[in-house]
Amino acid sequence: PTYFGKDWNAKGDDENALTLIRPLMALEASAFSGCCRVYAPLFRQPHYTVIDHPTGDSRNAFELAWNDIVRAFDSYISEDNGGRPFILVGHDLGGLLVQRILDDRIARGSRVSERMVAAYVIGAGVPVRAFSSKWTFLHACATPTDFRCVASWETFADGLSARPNSPEVWFDRSYAFFAEEERLCTNPLTWEVNGKADASKNLGALPASIDVSVGLNLIMGALPREDESRFRTLPALKPNYTGAECRNGLLYVPPPADPVFHTGWRGPGNLHLHDITLFWANIRENALQIGRAHV
Q: What SS3 state is found at 151?
């Protein structure tokens, strides 16, 4: 996640940052707990404006976070991985950081790259040309059991106004403007590139969300806390909740009726906070599928 506060980066033990991290772990990382042991590095998260309003200072904050992440990845590989296959997952800022892991530790043909099963780069955007330039070792996932591939999507409500996600992307050791890039869109209901599916393909949406106002109030100096007790038990899934269609590199769904899927800060049409929860059961099942197929 990104940091809501007064500094460019959160401290590793910052309780104001952790009050949002723990609920997000319950909602998002839980989708992958069925297939895998989940390793989520605690790092000095950069301020959320690093994504929304990139500047020289915000890039420095991003670099500090990246240094923590790459050290954590190297530590995992050397001390905890034990030669086992692994999946990379990142959402939002995490998606940008996973792209850099792919740049520096995976796509350059290292021995580690042989163990990577797949990478989910969610809510961050992946330039299609990456696969013909820096990621020639990888390809876009095209089937539910594809191997050594990348899946990516950014979710929007059809017909509603929305601001885009990050205007920049890290591309081959420099920044590129996303407005000039063709984006990869994987449909998480079919696991096809540029796919379309109706709601019958949705195994279950997870009707839960964090209270984003907690983070925004932190910026103003308040010290609110998310009620973490409500995430100890996840709510019942909602099967057949929504269909989804890729268009022009973005994933579109009908505007959700349930208010729990209305939270966000980039306009009512940007469902960034729900990139995972709207398709929670499909993601969980896909992680299990590729695990069974390739481990």
A: strand
Contact (CB, 8 A) for 141 and 116: no
Q: What is residue 5's DSSP assignment?
A: S
Of 239, 235, 258, nearest to 157 by C-alpha is: 258
Closest CA to 51 of 14, 90, 103: 90
pLDDT digits (tens, 9 = 90+) for 46-58: 877 777 676 778 7
Q: CA torsion, points 69, 137, 131, 187, in degrees to nearest 10?
A: -80
Could you give the CA distance from residue 275 to residue 155 in angstroms, rounded to a whole number? 6
- Interval 143-175: pLDDT, tens: 999 999 999 999 999 998 777 777 666 666 666
**Cα–Cα distance for residue pair 295/291, rounded to 1 Å:** 5
Confidence (pLDDT) at 59? 81
Strand order across the beta sheet in which 250-253 lies: 155-157, 250-253, 244-247, 196-197
* CA 101 to centroid of chain Cα atoms: 14
Q: Is 56 helix (H, G, I), strand (E, B) or coil?
A: helix
Q: What is the pTM of this model?
A: 0.91
In this structure, the strands spanning 244-247 and 155-157 are: unpaired
What is the spatial order of strands in the sheet that 86-91 belongs to? 86-91, 116-122, 149-153, 139-140
Secondary structure of residue 80 in the 3-state scheme:
helix
